[in-house]
Amino acid sequence: MDFNAFLDGFALVIEPHNLLYCLIGVLIGMVIGVLPGLGPAATIAILLPITYTIDPVSAIIMLAGIYYGAQYGGTITSVLLRLPGEASSVVTVFDGFALAKQGKAGTALGIAAIGSFVGATISIVGLTLLAPIVAEVALDFGPPEYAALALLGVLLVATIGSGNKLKAMIAGALGLLLATVGRDSFSGASRFTFDSLQLADGIDFVVVAMGLFGVGEILYNLEQRHGKKHVPAKVGNVWPSRADLKQSSGAIGRGSVIGFVLGVLPGGGAVLSSIVAYATEKRRSKTPERFGRGAIEGVAAPETANNAAATSSFIPLLTIGLPANATMAMLFGALLILGVSPGPQLVTEHPDVFWGVINSMYIGNILLLILSVPLVGLFVRILRVRPAILAPITALITLLGVYTINNSTFDVFLMVAFGIVGYLMKKAGFDPGPMVLAFVLGSIIESSTRRSLLIFGGDATGFVTRPISGVILGIFVLLIVLPMVRHVRNSRAAARTSDKTSTQTEKLGV
Amino acid sequence: MNDASHPHTGDILAEIEAEVAQELEEERPPSGGAAYQVVGSLVGLAVGVGGALLAFNYGLGSLREPGPGLWPFLVSVLIAVLSAVLLVVGRGLTDAEAFTRKSVLPGVGAVTFVAFGLLMPLTGFEIPALILCVIWLKFLGGESWRNTVVISVVTVAAFYLLFLYGLRIPLPHLISF
């Protein structure tokens, strides 16, 4: 690791304007984490046009802050309202809300904030040490490895996320197809442009992301608003007692490790790690019956893990250039806009971006700890702001933002069209996430595949015979075949025990 | 959802995952039926087949010298095949949401977006922005007239200052100082 570059990164981060953007980022992140509705991916999508106007490093620092800040904010609604602001805070609901009912909301929030801080910080240290090494290994990758890796990334994001895997794979493939619109970079031929001049250069990533994520979610939320009022529980002392800290220290330690490891895997990320961390604590506990009734470890473990995972999911982005989830795809797109291509060369070619982002997370997490312990009351008050008031503001930010990219109303209409597609996809049970991710990786997959074919002289078996790409493709095949085998086995097992399950489902009223 | 009801479930992880799924389910509107799944699959199939036909015309080339159409052709075929599989196995899925009377709201929202795009180059952004705020607050959001007027005016003024003075981004505008 280049220690000087690491220190230079710190010097860059503590420049006042970068500190300010870091603060703005984590603040926005916490606020959107608290407000159910817009997630971090949608928020970053909506704010992408800002990357055209401010300094690249500051822009990435701010956008990254939104992502990990949202993990802190999501806890507040889970504990106080039983409404998880983010999917990664769903398990926090079980014990967090139970604690709030016992009048210990403050303790739950306090331990979650401390766990989040510890988890994230351990994860950043891991990131600091590991990322340069991974980047060095990845320098040997050629086009076949990149094609295989990016394909694997799309598949992992499609299959590990929640929801139907087949639909996620269709969405991913649609994203790959969408990426081919415009001029073919090899032959110069126009594809799917339908003689439109505006489409000749392809579709702008920002327009796609703002449409599918931003407008799609804004429209979807218009319909979902239930109008029911939530009264948050009272928040007392947020400093956990020494006994609470002692009880949850093990959970925080294990949660950090689980989060770090799962966060690195593409598609793994915050949601999965919070569930695994919770399950681990429940399994290890001598008194598992306390879980779900207000066990402090049940809050500490998932909150630590989701922050650790949010941090370590930067590793594949910064070292291989592979976004591990939809939010990372947004940051990937933002970096491309800034003229920085994420990948193994990042650490040597743009050390300012590489170390600036990583080191800003140390500072960002300290800011978040300050925001979420002493200032938690302020964020609880944000819960009183009605979504109806925020909706037109986000709508205007989106409309004006997309217009300013090219001063083009065509972009506005294209974004609205993608917004409608995104809304309809959500209604039909398709997650737009894999589509955006595949779109951003699409041209890389295509060009590396074609370049590889040129290297191999048209012999496609070259992908399998090269050791690294062969192994990656082997994993790819395993990931498709294994779930099928498990599915068949499960449905056989289900047939055997069908009597038992049918009585159970009747009881649940499904 | 307490554990006493499943005393012999071995896998705590699977149990918690089911619990999470149920927790998320509670927040969701009524599910659409098989028709939604069929329509979804058919749209996928149509895109796949259409894409494959267009791509075929761009020229497939060979593996040694791939034409511009080869990659989009392969991807389109993949979409078509996956959608066909979904058409067969996906009828029983419950992940689609039914359209209700409230689905008019996103429709109106989308129309205001388009109208904004049409009006802004002609009149500057202030008037369309104000109209959009009023429609969203009063008619889509059910706010009081007083709130609507105050929030709309403040929002438009704030955007004016933010874009034209704060970020110094030129927007078509009516009022200049």
Can you tell me about this structure?
The complex is a heterodimer of chains A (510) and B (177). Chain A is mostly helical. Chain A contains 23 helices and 2 strands. Chain A has a two-stranded antiparallel sheet. Chain A is globular. The N and C termini of chain A lie far apart (56 Å). The model of chain A is unreliable at 501-510 (pLDDT under 50). Helices cover 66% and strands 0% of the residues of chain B. Chain B contains 6 helices and no strands. The longest helix of chain B has 25 residues, at 34-58. The interface between A and B is large, with 79 and 87 residues.
Please describe the biggest sheet of chain B, giving its number of strands, its sense, and whether it closes into a barrel.
none
Instruction: Give the strand tally of chain B.
Output: 0
Q: Provide the succession of SSEs of chain A.
A: HHHHHHHHEEHHHHHHHHHHHHHHH
- Cα-to-Cα separation, first versus last residue of chain B: 63 Å
Q: Count the DSSP helices of chain B.
A: 6
Averaged pLDDT of chain B: 86
Distance between the termini of chain A: 56 Å
Backbone CA Rg of chain B:
25 Å
Question: What's the β-strand tally of chain A?
Answer: 2
- Secondary-structure-derived class of chain A: mainly alpha
Q: Any low-confidence stretches of chain B, pLDDT <50, length ≥5? A: 1-10
Work out the strand percent of chain A. under 5%
What is the total domain count of chain A? 2
Encode the helix/strand succession of chain B as letters.
HHHHHH
Shape verdict of chain A: globular
